[in-house]
Write a structure and sequence with these properties.
Oligomer: single chain
Radius of gyration: 13 Å
Mean pLDDT: 89
Largest sheet: 4 strands, antiparallel
Helix content: 10-25%
Length: 97
């Protein structure tokens, strides 16, 4: 999948400080995850934890805004209220979401 249109939320706050708690990526990603038949937690295709350049991030597919606006608004409100940096996902090919 091409990453065009995906957003990356990083743990760096706009004031330059690292966001805490350190497991915020897993907590945020798990809000849209579900348990499958095999009893394993599966992250949503739209909200995925990721490590980019050594930094823990959450990658958000922009199509979530049209398919589940409430979920998209929740994730974006979390990022905005915690002053987290949001940027375009510039990865391509196999490295993309």
């Amino acid at each position: 999948m091409i990453s065009e249109g995906n957003l990356v939320i990083t743990g760096m706050q706009k004031n330059g400080e690292q966001f805490r708690p350190s497991d915020w990526v897993e907590r945020l990603s798990s809000t849209l995850a579900s348990f499958q038949v095999d009893h394993r937690l599966r992250y949503s295709q739209a909200v995925q934890p990721c490590i980019i350049d050594g930094e823990h991030c959450v990658v958000i597919a922009r199509w979530l805004q049209s398919t589940d606006p409430t979920a998209y608004d929740f994730v974006m409100a979390f990022a905005h209220s915690n002053h987290l940096c949001i940027q375009e996902d510039r990865r391509a090919g196999e490295r993309a979401l």
